[in-house]
Design brief:
Radius of gyration: 13 Å
Largest sheet: 5 strands, mixed
Helix content: under 10%
Strand content: 35-45%
Order of helices and strands: EEEEEEEEHEE
Distance between the termini: 24 Å
Number of strands: 10
Shape: globular
Length: 108
């Protein structure tokens, strides 16, 4: 699992740097104001799964799944640290496919 560097949004703006999605998944530090940006350059939709570490406020332990369409982009988040952070304060992400998929973690 690759660790993504969290890029902080500033008043001057940023141009995020994207990394190739890791076949084993990615993880990134999360303070509750961090988003995952996923760009899918492939010809098929890709499912992104955010691993829930704990039950939600309704008592269910369910992951977030988002479909990123072919040639599409999705901003996913922010993530509640109490529900999504692992023991190291990181969110864990998995992908149904990684060919032509790039990602960035952006904090506001």
């Amino acid at each position: 699992m690759a660790v993504l560097t969290v890029q902080k949004l500033t008043n001057a703006g940023i141009t995020p740097t994207y990394s190739a999605a890791d076949v084993a998944g990615d993880k990134f530090a999360n303070n509750g104001r961090t988003f995952l940006v996923v760009k899918n350059g492939s010809a098929s939709a890709v499912t992104v799964t955010i691993n829930s570490q704990k039950k939600c406020d309704q008592g269910f332990d369910h992951d977030i799944t988002v479909s990123v369409p072919a040639s599409g982009e999705r901003w996913i988040g922010p993530f509640d640290p109490n529900r999504f952070n692992n023991a190291n304060g990181q969110v864990e992400v998995a992908y149904s496919a990684v060919t032509s998929v790039t990602v960035a973690a952006v904090q506001v």
